[in-house]
Amino acid sequence: MAAPLIELLDISRSFGSTRAVDDVSLTVQSGSVHAVTGENGAGKSTLMKILAGVIRPDAGTIRLEGCEVHFSSPLGALGHGISTVFQEFTLIPNLTVAESIFLGREPMRRWGGIDYPKLRSGAAAALARLESAIDPDGMVRNLTVAEQQIVEIAKGLSADARVFIFDEPTAALNSADVEKLTRLIRDLKARGKAVLYISHRLEEIFALCDTVTVMKDGRHVATRPTAELNEHDLVAMMVGRELSSFFPPRAGTVGEPILTADDLRVTAAAPSVRLKLYRGEILGLAGLEGQGQRGIARALAGIEPAEAGRIEKTDRDQKRQALPVDAGIGRTLASGIGFVPEDRKGEGLFLDLAIRDNIALGVETGRPFWTLAPNTTAVIGSMMQSMNIRARNADAIVGSLSGGNQQKVLIGRWLSSGVDVLIIEEPTRGVDVGAKAEVYKLLRAFSDAGGAVLVLSRETPELIGLCDRLLVVHGGAIVAEMAADGATEHDILHSAIGSRQAA
Amino acid sequence: MAHTLEASSNAGGANHWVRALGRRLIEIPPAYFVLAAVLIAIALLNPNLMKPQVLLTFIRQSAPLGVAVLGQLMVMRARSIDLSIGGVFIITNYLLTSGLLGGQPVAVLVLAPLVVGLVVGLVNGALIALVRASAVIVTLGVSIILTGIVLFMSSGRPPGRVPDELRAIANARIDVVPVPVIIWVVAAVIVAVLLKTLIFGRYLTAIGSNPQAARFSGLPLPRIVVTTHVLSGLLAALGGVMFTAALGVGSVKFGPEIMMNSIAATILGGVTFGSGRGGVAGPFVGVVAFALLFALMTVFGIQEPGKLIVQGTVIAVAAIIYGMRTR
Predict the structure, then answer these.
(1) Interchain proximity B213–A349, CB inside 8 Å
(2) Is the CB of residue A334 less than 8 Å away from at least one CB of chain B?
(3) Can you list the domains of chain A with their CATH numbers?
(4) What span, in angstroms and rounded, lies between the C-alpha atoms of A193 and A184?
(5) Helix, strand or coil for residue A312?
(6) pTM of the entire predicted model
(7) How large is the ipTM?
(8) Domain boundaries, chain B
């Protein structure tokens, strides 16, 4: 048998006192897609950066078809046929697509100038092989994230790379682009290339990859053919323990309506929406992506005023309160509705402030300017403990926390403020597997304590597992309602699309 | 691909330690380093000046600027800026020296400019927060209008003089400490305590850190911005009264310089756009450092051109440090 295309042998790399990669070995065969997975901070990105020539290992060897190689830069690695699509894009915005594809290895004329016609035709050929309509003369800054990825792949193809590394490529893509990327990767595999695919999205690993390597705390845990595993096994390997149940038990009984909307029109052209959220339940807005779930949630939260409608909130002493559609966040919040946006860093958190400041704002918001700020030390201490926020202390800067802990801080802000309705977008985006279960548990504890949660998520399995009841949204309207228990992704898709055919 | 190459540099243990120390140092407002450098220079070059009485006399000159900076720092923490401070100083100077308020008691002499400052702050804040006009353009425009009004009203008349009661206050001392310095310190302590303990201070921190998140947390952004501008207008008017009282005569020359120095001292004091951080102490020290720097240059006979060069350099360095901190 021929030597494997790539062998990583006993690779180690430390940053300061942390061993990011600890004695890891890995072999990759050509014509296969090999997943590397693990929780955030497991060392998968570092390992790939070593293979891509970005970082040099402290110890260990890399062999390419049996021959030992050393890379001093990403360009050096590309010269050996290893191409990388990094998590954060490294294309330069003010170059053209063709210039980017040949950056650092431009075809030269005899007298030293860049051979632009050759550069352009080479780029066009590489893009054509990817069946892409991207203009080689277009500027990189005008490209979408998905198009930038294609340019990175074209770069690899034009350099005749044999190994393609994808570092969390779908993190910033919508579902149509994910599908396109999946086809591209299958195509690379069919051409006999080796693909390394870094991801912690289980569905993608099972759908796309032949082999999966799990890393944890910088160490190699296991390498298995995906066909031998199921999701449960894989999660257990990633987390390093059996997750008895990923999702907490559903609500036994629900109470009276806590938030109702009638004839709610998000925009003048949108269909009218009617929904009821009951005390003690977690309600999910399901459906295909971008069908108006977000607009409904944000209208209810008072973030973006709706065009028309009646919203009513019932507080803990059964008092009903009508909320005008243009009430604004201040008033919805005062009525007891908290909002956790999808873009946690941009719209939710104060990244350069301490955990203390981020949570305390939940208590402080709505108070008059010239009153004393309340002492929140006790509230914050108990919140950090009950939510299991892992940080040195309450003075830790939120920007330095992991995605899961950041999400807990944001949820903690509203728990400390005493709201009884939580509207939350993408509750576990960028949150690693272990912390996901904790976030689910927190939301369930909130609803069990007499609150109610409205959840939006692109991950339908998450909605099915977490919620009590699902509303399927299509074209801005609620087209179906179902119990989450027993619902399948197929049911949801069917009711979304079926209704369109009926209409 | 350029920035990925940086990651390949070796991150050894000692290197790590040096970088941690560097980060810690960068957290300290640059004003402290400037003040230390100026004090060392004075001590080495002319030790005779290192007496409280002398230093306090230098600092007294910058007390009006220091009071105005208290407003500027709040405005800048709310991600706005107030370029109308110069205009407020100028119109205050006109009110006090033109004879308009001739024969009025001291209380009126102080209150009238404060009313003007309040109105200017309200106009600035309303245009910025409600009409969503650019803070730079609005406040610069207001400043130019105020200067224009003063030039129109005073054209053809000789510059007036400040009422004697005000002059007396500006020149008074309690023990060795000049009264303007006391007013400044008291105002700074009040502002610092209020920002630390009141809800308003928390809101200001949040909006400086992330305005969008502040909005999503239910904070009334427009009202916060308007409030900072009103406070800045009031403090600028108070600074203008102190400045005019010390100057003694009518003038319109100093406006742009006061405005620029207020921004420079605030940045030097560690208040930066786009961050929730920054206190009152940093800009306070920034003003002190400026005062001593100019005094030092005066003592050594450096003329106006030289002062401008040094002043510009300090502002540029502050901007560079600001860039490093936000990275």
Answers:
(1) yes
(2) yes
(3) 6-239 (3.40.50.300), 245-336+419-430+450-503 (3.40.50.300), 343-418 (no CATH)
(4) 12
(5) strand
(6) 0.75
(7) 0.86
(8) 32-326
